[in-house]
Specification:
- A 7-stranded mixed beta sheet has the order 6-7-10-9-8-11-12, sandwiched between helices. It has a 5-stranded mixed beta sheet with strand order 3-2-1-4-5, with helices on both faces.
- A hairpin with a 3-residue loop joins strand 6 and strand 7.
- The chain is built from 7 helices and 12 strands.
- Helix 1 packs parallel to helix 2 and helix 3 packs across helix 7.
- By secondary structure, it is α/β, with parallel strands linked by helices.
- The protein is globular.
Length: 256
Amino acid sequence: MTLLVDVGNSAVKWARLAADGSVSAGGRVLHRGGQDVAAALAGAWATVPAPRRAVGCSVASAEVVAAVERAAQVAGLADVEWMRSQVSYCGEITLVNGYLDPGQLGADRWHALLGACARLPGASLVVVNAGTATTVDCIRVGEGTARFVGGCIAPGVRLMLESLARGTAGLPLASGAPADFPDTTDKAIVTGVFDAQAGLVERVWRRFSTGLGRAPRLLLAGGHAELLAARLPAELAPLIEHNLVLRGLALRAAVR
C-alpha cells in the first residue's frame, strides 16, 4: 500500500494506492489557519496498511512540508518521496513538458496534467484547477504523444474576494453564489469574480481550439470547480474531475 500526498497551497489531500493500481478515497486537512497539521495527519495515517510507502508533491512552504514529514514519521511511514516536474513522462501515458525550463513548472500542475491524460487518454485537453490559484493548462495530442504546450496562472476565487475586501474601504468579504443579475453587493462581487474566472477559462479554451482546429476537452478540478463550471457556456462541456494531482502521483508511484 502506498500513501499518495498532495500538499497544496491551502490543504493536504491524500489517497491510498493499492498494489493492483486502484486508488481509494483518502482525506483532506487544511493547513491554513494554524491548526496542528502534523498531529491531524499522523492520526489519519496511522491506519494505512503495510507496506507503508509515501509518495507526494508539494507547492506549500517548507514549514508545511516539514509538518507532513513529521506526521509520516509518527505514523510509521517511510520517508516521503517528493516528486517534482519532469522533462517528460513515459509510462501508462506519454506526456512531454513544453516549459522552456521544465523544472520551473509547479509539481502540482505537472501531476494534475498527468492525471488528466490518464483520465482522457488520446484527447487534447484544457485542464483547470480552481483552487487557491486558478491554473488553465493546455495539452496537445498528436502522433501518439501528448505535449503540455503552456498555460496561465491567476489568483483564485478566494484570493480575488480577499483582495477586494482588503484593498477597498467599503466592500465586504463577499460570500455566496454568483447570479445572472446581481441585486446585492455580495452577489455583485461574487458574480464579478466567478465571471472573471470563467472568462479566462473560455478565452484560453477558444484560443487553443483555434490552433487545434477542433474543440479540446475541458477538465475542471479544485474547490470552486462546480460553481465555475456553471458560469461557462454549455459549448465547452466542462467535465469535473477532482484529485487529478493524486491520480498523476499514482502514475509516478507505479514506476520505481
